[in-house]
Amino acid sequence: MVKKSGDKKVEKVESSSKKNTFNFTKFFKKNYSFILIGVLLIVLLSFLVFENITGKCVYNSGISKSNLEEIVVGMYDHLGYDAEVSSIVSENNFYKVSVSVEGSSEILHFTLDGKEFVPDGFILPVQDILDSSKPTEVEEVVEIPLSEKPIVDLYVMSFCPFGNLAEETMLPVYDLLKEDVDWNIRYIVSEKNGVINSLHGQPETDQNIRELCVLNQYGLDSFWNFVSYINNNCGSDGNCWEDGAEELGLNVDDIKSCYETDGFNLMKEEAKISSEAGVGGSPTLIINGVQTDIVYDYGNSESYKQVICSAFDVKPEKCDTTLEGSSSQVSGSC
């Protein structure tokens, strides 16, 4: 309504309305201390869910256990494994998740919002893990320097299924070129306060060490045979490694001795090398100091061979050999 000048009736009605209107400003000034205390209590109660027996406060997680279960199963599915969650409990401001993965049991920890995976001291955004398994377009965008003997560094995690695919793809190339190339197999781990951490837990760290022990004690041929046996027969825990060693003529006791005496130093060195190279994903392929995405062309040994052969000053005749295989439909990395 538009108030007209001299419209006393309207003015009287509006004046009456103002008299009956609750004046929040005056009420707040009069009772501000009680209101402030009330607001603080509401804010505090909205964040606190409950206090556990240790006296630590557990905050609203923002994610249900059923949704977290879907995330965990999805993570393993993206990594190529079938997993079943047996329990999820709140523990020390984290979710402790018990998982059964193809016959073996694992314990995982997540932040209460379900957004971060916490394996052995790492803080890994769950979305990064899921994104890492999205299809990767293979494209060569950098030029690899030439050398008389190319240096090939393959970075993997021993129980990363994509790293295993890269190893299987690389093996025919190794068998072809062998002494013509300077081969280096590297393991992606971290070291903090004297503790070695690997993405897939302690079993993976153990297997990393065993494989390096075989490499150092028996050489590249035995190493590749051992790795192939583990990848094809031992699943995600490596429990059958002794059978593989015996079948290949490797001394189990020697490998165990190396594990006990040299294991930590071997992994500490790997952590240093992978950190200095800026490598975090398995697999990663670096040739003459240049990283190449051809590593994601799983199953296509010929493409691996061509890129490595392109790094020679003078290509050996072996590079004219065509390797069998075709690109896999699987894409991704750990």
Quick tags:
single chain; three-stranded antiparallel beta sheet; 10 helices; Nuclear Transport Factor 2, Chain: A; alpha+beta; four-stranded mixed beta sheet; 2 domains; globular; Glutaredoxin
Walkthrough of the structure:
With 334 residues, the protein is of the alpha+beta class. The protein folds into two domains: 59-132, Nuclear Transport Factor 2, Chain: A, CATH 3.10.450; 151-320, Glutaredoxin (3-Layer(aba) Sandwich). Helix content is 44%, strand content 18%. It contains ten helices and 13 strands. The chain has helices at residues 8-20, 24-47, 65-78, 126-132, 161-177, 202-218, 220-233, 241-247, 252-277, 301-309; strands at residues 48-51, 57-59, 83-91, 94-101, 104-111, 116-117, 124-125, 151-156, 182-187, 190-192, 195-197, 284-287, 290-292. The strands form five sheets. Strands 9-8-12-13 form a four-stranded mixed sheet, with helices on both faces. It has a three-stranded antiparallel sheet with strand order 3-4-5, with helices on one face. A hairpin with a 2-residue loop joins strand 4 (94-101) and strand 5. The chain is globular. It starts with 7 loop residues before the first helix and ends in a 25-residue tail after the last helix. Residues 1-29, 31-61, 120-124 and 132-141 have low confidence and may be disordered.
Layout of secondary structure:
Elements: H1 8-20, H2 24-47, E1 48-51, E2 57-59, H3 65-78, E3 83-91, E4 94-101, E5 104-111, E6 116-117, E7 124-125, H4 126-132, E8 151-156, H5 161-177, E9 182-187, E10 190-192, E11 195-197, H6 202-218, H7 220-233, H8 241-247, H9 252-277, E12 284-287, E13 290-292, H10 301-309
Parallel strand pairs: 8-9
Antiparallel strand pairs: 1-2, 3-4, 4-5, 6-7, 8-12, 10-11, 12-13
